């Protein structure tokens, strides 16, 4: 199986606090990889290092390498903006741009990167909205504000916005934590459908969600990677006692 | 996704970030220039006479602005005596009792008052106090400055009182203290640093006000003789001397500007320190 | 210490509450006194000139002509010049301080910008007369005439004093207001908005342009209007450098006059009742305009403090 992202001996800090400690982990192409662990275990920080978003917070630093298709994204010559185009991200709370219409929200990335040759903005927006199953719901009101949608729709709009710039990897930082069960289900279905085209890394505090959507699962504790493997193995046959404690709910 | 586009994006990114920093530097240039001129030209004008002598008539060299320094202190003192207690009272009302429409209206009035041009205050005080007394006076000037101080003191008092945790109030009330005693001894005392900061900032602000004094306190070439008489002040002297053609008066105007700016800055900095020491300051 | 009896305590409470209540009412009363006083004082001019006061283009106290159009013109144009200079600079400062500057730079630079607001207006005027005006006369006006002299705005004698100098000095004076309020507005923009744009591969500037500034646009507009309000009412510095001649000329090199500056100039020397009343009426116009601008600005800035609908703030 192809390795899309290879994290090598990676650490990350906020000021003096080390949030990620010497993590090494391969992320396989066209698979869903879930990162689980108790709050404060560094899983969100870790995922934010995969598109170099951690460094936009003042006082932070990192050490180690992250190879995207063999190229170290932390290399001095690499432009973080270009990495962020190739590695898209969806956040905990839906964050559409409130002053933009639904259409403009999806097209926001295109406005900075330009259109792929031979396409129009209309085509790309329609394709992206169809991929997230939102097209039928919003086709007749594309000019309405992005924040006029429900929470679940907003989150799918944000996914469409991320997909419109054609990333290779999609990072999802607890994308359902602010949503109701029905919207959560829709997003989970969506994730399963998207993995053919995209490599997906999802952070979740919900173990069941990881079990439902992920092919691979990594368990983090106190900034360290404790265990990583095929999801079913992790949940049915953990090798580490701490992993077992966590998934059986005897933990924190 | 085309190389040229990325180049252009990176360039405009750099350019705009540099422009933002340049705007900051550019805006601070006048500040540097003003402080430099006031300091150098002002220092040349300052001597013993400046602080002890009365202004000389046009054409005679020498003289000082002692009466204007004293006058400014008197005017600011008068304004503080009137403006600070009233402002604190209003601030207490807003923070402790102020709910509903009236409080909203008072708060709004306060915000709006800070935007009223100070020369308007001058006209109004002229129309009421000066016309009634039939003369320009220190009192009228003090009232005009107090009106300008009032909303500044009110808003800082309110904000500082709101920072006092409610648990402190409840603890005091639970001990059987009356509300005014609670407010007075517990709430006010713990917010005192902030209130002093706010009041000093208001003092610094009105010390340099000129427009409202032009037709209230006017000016005077003599020592202050009574609160019902016209009175000299540094800002008005700077204005009148700067607009004369005489070198000697320009020199004194710079001296006055240095003294005034020093007074204002020292008060402002003292205000900040008071706020910081009380812990409530930002 | 003897405990006060319940009765006297209740009495003390209501007295205290009543006093603060009176003080608060006094504040509202004060604004009403200001309004009434201005209206009463301008009655004579109003019965004399009616609306002609605003449309009349000649202000000549010696001949009893009081048309305030040149003052209104001077006020508007000098304020517009100020905005033209101050808005881009202030936005640059706000962006620099809220988005870009390293943390150790932010506090001292913010303090310096605030210091600009602490300097008395009359000191700006003094500096204007002896530093800015000569600079405008010997450098800026000749330069503008050489490069843009084909425009009607940049023609005529180099006085130094005049509309241009007034606009520049006003710009310097309103920069602290606009930049401080805009900075607060930018700091109120949730980080999730920045990260959303950054995560799409946008550069920092693209993030500011497409996510941060649009989110704060009504607050920034409020900041600009607040600055405009200050520029319109600013008196001393303008009076000292604008040249004090009530006239309407397309050239910014020309001497001019604003509402505030004519009041400062003529009020204490106006012995004629009508002249005095005309000045009070000019003051009334100024009062109403700045009042409306301030109300508008406050409402706009308040709107940003509350986030736009549907967006959760963290």
TrEMBL record, chain A:
GO CC terms in record: membrane
Name of the top EC class for this enzyme: hydrolase
Gene Ontology terms for molecular function: ATP binding; ATP hydrolysis activity; phosphate transmembrane transporter activity
Keyword Transmembrane helix among record annotations: no
Domain ABC transporter: 5-247
Keyword ATP-binding: yes
InterPro entries: AAA+_ATPase, ABC_transporter-like_ATP-bd, ABC_transporter-like_CS, P-loop_NTPase, PstB-like
Name by which UniProt lists this protein: Phosphate import ATP-binding protein PstB 3
Native species: Moorella mulderi DSM 14980
Gene assigned in the entry: pstB3_2
From TrEMBL, chain B:
Main location: membrane
Transmembrane parts of this sequence: 15-39, 68-95, 102-129, 135-153, 186-207, 252-274
Transmembrane recorded as keyword: yes
Topology in membrane: Multi-pass membrane protein
Classification via InterPro entries: MetI-like (IPR000515), MetI-like_sf (IPR035906), Phosphate_PstA (IPR005672), Phosphate_transprt_permease (IPR051408)
GO CC annotations on file: plasma membrane
SUPFAM superfamilies in alphabetical order: MetI-like
PROSITE patterns: ABC_TM1 (PS50928)
Location within or outside the cell: Cell membrane
Annotated ranges, domain ABC transmembrane type-1: 69-271
Keywords: Cell membrane, Membrane, Phosphate transport, Transmembrane, Transmembrane helix, Transport
Gene Ontology biological-process entries: phosphate ion transmembrane transport
MF (Gene Ontology): phosphate transmembrane transporter activity
Family: Belongs to the binding-protein-dependent transport system permease family. CysTW subfamily.
Protein name per the record: Phosphate transport system permease protein PstA
UniProtKB/TrEMBL annotation, chain C:
Transmembrane segments: 21-39, 71-97, 109-136, 156-175, 219-242, 274-296
Entry keyword set: Cell membrane, Membrane, Phosphate transport, Transmembrane, Transmembrane helix, Transport
GO annotation terms (biological process): phosphate ion transport
GO MF annotations, alphabetized: phosphate transmembrane transporter activity
Function noted in UniProt: Part of the binding-protein-dependent transport system for phosphate; probably responsible for the translocation of the substrate across the membrane.
Encoding gene, per UniProt annotation: pstC
Domain annotation ABC transmembrane type-1: ranges: 72-297
Annotated signal peptide: none
A Pfam entry, by short name: BPD_transp_1
Entry's localization field: Cell membrane
Record-given protein name: Phosphate transport system permease protein
Gene3D superfamilies registered for this protein in UniProt: MetI-like
Gene Ontology CC terms, in alphabetical order: plasma membrane
SUPFAM superfamilies: MetI-like (SSF161098)
Mode of membrane association: Multi-pass membrane protein
Family, per entry: Belongs to the binding-protein-dependent transport system permease family. CysTW subfamily.
């Amino acid at each position: 199986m192809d390795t899309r992202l290879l994290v090598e001996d990676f650490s990350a800090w906020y000021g003096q606090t080390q949030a990620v400690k010497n993590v090494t982990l391969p992320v396989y192409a066209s698979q869903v990889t879930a990162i689980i662990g108790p709050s404060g275990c560094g899983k969100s920080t870790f995922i934010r290092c995969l598109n170099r978003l951690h460094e936009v917070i003042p006082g932070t630093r990192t050490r180690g390498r992250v190879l995207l298709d063999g190229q170290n994204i932390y290399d001095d010559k690499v432009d973080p903006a270009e990495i962020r185009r190739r590695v898209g991200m969806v956040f905990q709370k839906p964050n559409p741009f409130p002053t933009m219409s639904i259409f403009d929200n999806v097209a926001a990335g295109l406005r900075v990167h330009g259109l792929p040759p031979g396409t129009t903005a209309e085509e790309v927006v329609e394709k992206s909205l169809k991929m997230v199953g939102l097209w039928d719901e919003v086709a007749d009101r594309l000019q309405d504000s992005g924040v006029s949608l429900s929470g679940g729709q907003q989150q799918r709009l944000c996914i469409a916005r991320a997909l419109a710039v054609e990333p290779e990897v999609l990072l999802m930082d607890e994308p359902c934590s602010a949503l109701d069960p029905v919207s959560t289900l829709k997003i989970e279905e969506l994730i399963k459908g998207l993995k053919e085209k995209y490599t997906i890394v999802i952070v979740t505090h919900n173990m069941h969600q990881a079990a439902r959507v992920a092919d691979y699962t990594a368990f983090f504790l106190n900034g360290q990677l404790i265990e990583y493997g095929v999801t079913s193995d992790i949940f049915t046959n953990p090798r580490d006692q701490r992993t077992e404690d966590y998934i059986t709910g005897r933990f924190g | 996704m085309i190389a040229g586009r990325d180049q252009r994006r990176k360039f405009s990114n750099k350019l705009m970030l540099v422009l933002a920093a340049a705007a900051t530097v550019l805006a601070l240039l006048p500040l540097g220039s003003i402080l430099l001129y006031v300091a150098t030209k002002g220092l040349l004008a300052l001597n013993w006479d400046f602080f002890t002598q009365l202004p000389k008539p046009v054409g005679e060299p020498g003289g000082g602005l002692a009466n204007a320094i004293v006058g400014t202190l008197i005017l600011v003192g008068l304004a503080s005596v009137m403006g600070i207690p009233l402002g604190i009272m209003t601030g207490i009302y807003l923070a402790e009792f102020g709910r509903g429409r009236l409080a909203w209206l008072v708060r709004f009035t306060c915000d709006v008052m800070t935007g009223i041009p100070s020369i308007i205050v001058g006209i109004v005080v002229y129309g009421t106090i000066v016309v009634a007394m039939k003369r320009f006076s220190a009192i009228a000037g003090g009232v005009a400055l107090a009106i300008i101080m009032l909303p500044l003191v009110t808003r800082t008092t309110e904000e500082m009182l709101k920072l006092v945790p409610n648990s402190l109030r409840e603890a005091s009330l639970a001990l059987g203290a009356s509300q005014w005693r609670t407010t007075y001894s517990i709430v006010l005392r713990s917010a005192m640093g902030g209130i002093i900061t706010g009041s000093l900032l208001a003092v610094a602000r009105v010390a340099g006000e000129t427009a409202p004094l032009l037709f209230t306190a006017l000016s005077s070439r003599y020592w202050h003789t009574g609160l019902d008489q016209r009175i000299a002040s540094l800002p008005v002297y700077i204005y009148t001397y700067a607009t004369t053609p005489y070198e000697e008066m320009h020199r004194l105007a710079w001296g006055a500007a240095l003294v005034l700016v020093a007074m204002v800055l020292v008060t402002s900095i003292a205000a900040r320190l008071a706020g910081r020491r009380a812990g409530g300051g930002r | 210490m003897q405990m006060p009896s319940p009765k006297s305590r209740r009495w003390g409470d209501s007295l205290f509450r009543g006093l603060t209540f009176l003080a608060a009412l006094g504040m509202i009363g004060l604004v009403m006194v200001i309004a009434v006083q201005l209206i009463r004082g301008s009655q004579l001019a109003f019965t004399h000139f009616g609306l002609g006061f605003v449309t009349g283009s000649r202000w000549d106290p010696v001949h009893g002509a009081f048309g305030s159009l040149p003052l209104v013109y001077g006020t508007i144009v000098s304020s517009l010049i100020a905005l033209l200079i101050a808005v881009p600079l202030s936005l640059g400062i706000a962006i620099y301080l809220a988005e870009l500057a390293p943390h150790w730079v932010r506090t001292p630079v913010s303090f310096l910008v605030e210091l600009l607001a602490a300097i008395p207006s009359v000191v700006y005027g003094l500096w204007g007369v002896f530093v800015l005006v000569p600079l405008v006369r010997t450098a800026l006006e000749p330069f503008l005439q050489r490069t843009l002299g084909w425009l009607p705005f940049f023609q005529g004698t180099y006085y130094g004093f005049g509309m241009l100098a007034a606009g520049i000095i006003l710009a310097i004076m309103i920069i602290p207001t606009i930049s401080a309020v805009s900075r607060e507005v930018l700091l109120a923009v949730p980080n999730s908005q920045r990260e959303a744009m950054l995560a799409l591969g946008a550069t920092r500037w693209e993030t500011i342009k497409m996510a941060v500034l649009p989110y704060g646009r009504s607050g920034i507009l409020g900041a600009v209007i607040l600055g405009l309000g200050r520029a319109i009412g600013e008196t001393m510095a303008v009076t000292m450098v604008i040249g004090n001649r009530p006239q309407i000329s397309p050239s910014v090199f020309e001497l001019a006059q604003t509402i505030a500056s004519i009041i400062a100039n003529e009020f204490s020397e106006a012995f004629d009742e009508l002249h005095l009343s005309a000045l009070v009426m000019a003051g009334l116009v100024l009062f109403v305009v700045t009042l409306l601008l301030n109300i508008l600005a406050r409402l706009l800035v308040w709107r940003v403090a509350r986030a736009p609908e549907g967006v959760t703030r963290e």
